[in-house]
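Tip: read the tokens left to right.
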């Protein structure tokens, strides 16, 4: 069975409906910029409830599109390991359309 991944560009999207993911077979990766020091409590609580199926990925680099490039890299790694995986990117950027 193919894995489903949701990758969130937290620099420009802060989703409110993540509690709906509880009990669903998805893996969540929240990409946080190097300058982002705070995560809202409700998000942290939801991520914690997902256990090992969710993680934060804080990037080290700064600069234009740094986080976007990290997400693109993760997409490449996931596809290389699991070619049949379903991958969704939550972002306001159009840079991901080609992926």
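Filled-in amino acids:
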């Amino acid at each position: 069975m193919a894995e489903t991944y949701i990758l969130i560009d937290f620099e420009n999207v802060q989703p409110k409906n993540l509690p709906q993911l509880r009990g669903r077979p998805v893996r969540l990766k929240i990409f946080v910029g190097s300058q982002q020091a705070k995560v809202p409590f409700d998000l942290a609580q939801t991520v914690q409830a997902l256990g090992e199926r969710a993680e934060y990925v804080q990037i080290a680099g700064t600069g234009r599109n740094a986080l976007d490039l990290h997400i693109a890299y993760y997409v490449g790694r996931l596809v290389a390991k699991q070619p049949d995986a379903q991958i969704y990117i939550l972002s306001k950027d159009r840079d991901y359309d080609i992926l």
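The radius of gyration is 13 Å. Residues 7 and 89 are 5 Å apart (CA to CA).
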